[in-house]
Design a protein that fits this description.
Helix content is about 25%, strand content about 25%. The chain is of the alpha+beta class. It has one domain. The protein has a 4-stranded antiparallel sheet. Strands 6-5-7 form a 3-stranded antiparallel sheet. The longest helix is centred in the N-terminal third of the chain and has 18 residues. It is globular, with a radius of gyration of 18 Å.
Length: about 140
């Protein structure tokens, strides 16, 4: 009986430890809601996420909402583990903000008019530049 109890307890602990995920989670377009402005996330190309040190994910419909949320005191900077953004060229690809390349253009018309898109590579930025007039940006500039 005690052996069975320990076996069950061990199983629960193993599932709990390995069942926890870290990192970004996929967006559910039309279902997920922005944690800042409460709008439904409809254009995933501009969606973003904050991951806390404890693994909680906050989702945003635009990088502008994510930055406003982070800078607005709703979450402590020390509680933030990572910032993530969607790759404009492949909306299933979620990038760590530190590794992404950015391009700002009013022509993007993102949900909250942040109008900044993230890209996995510098060459992807060069591909959109002729189509969308704008400028390249760095993550440190966006986070201000």
């Amino acid at each position: 009986m005690i052996s069975s109890l320990f076996s069950n307890l061990f199983l629960v602990l193993v599932i709990g430890l390995f069942g926890c995920t870290s990192g970004p989670v996929p967006f559910k377009s039309g279902k997920d809601q922005c944690d800042h402005c409460k709008m439904v996330i409809s254009d995933v190309r501009f969606a973003a996420q904050i991951e806390t040190q404890k693994g909680k994910i906050f989702k945003f419909d635009d990088m502008r909402c994510m930055v406003d949320y982070a800078n607005g005191g709703k979450i402590k900077k020390t509680d933030i583990k990572n910032y993530y953004v969607t790759d404009f060229m492949n909306k299933k690809n979620i990038l760590n903000c530190k590794d992404a390349f950015y391009y700002a253009s009013a022509d993007f018309k993102s949900p909250m008019n942040g109008n900044i898109a993230a890209f996995a590579t510098q060459s992807d930025v060069k591909k959109v530049a002729p189509t969308f007039s704008g400028k390249e940006m760095k993550w440190s500039e966006i986070l201000k």
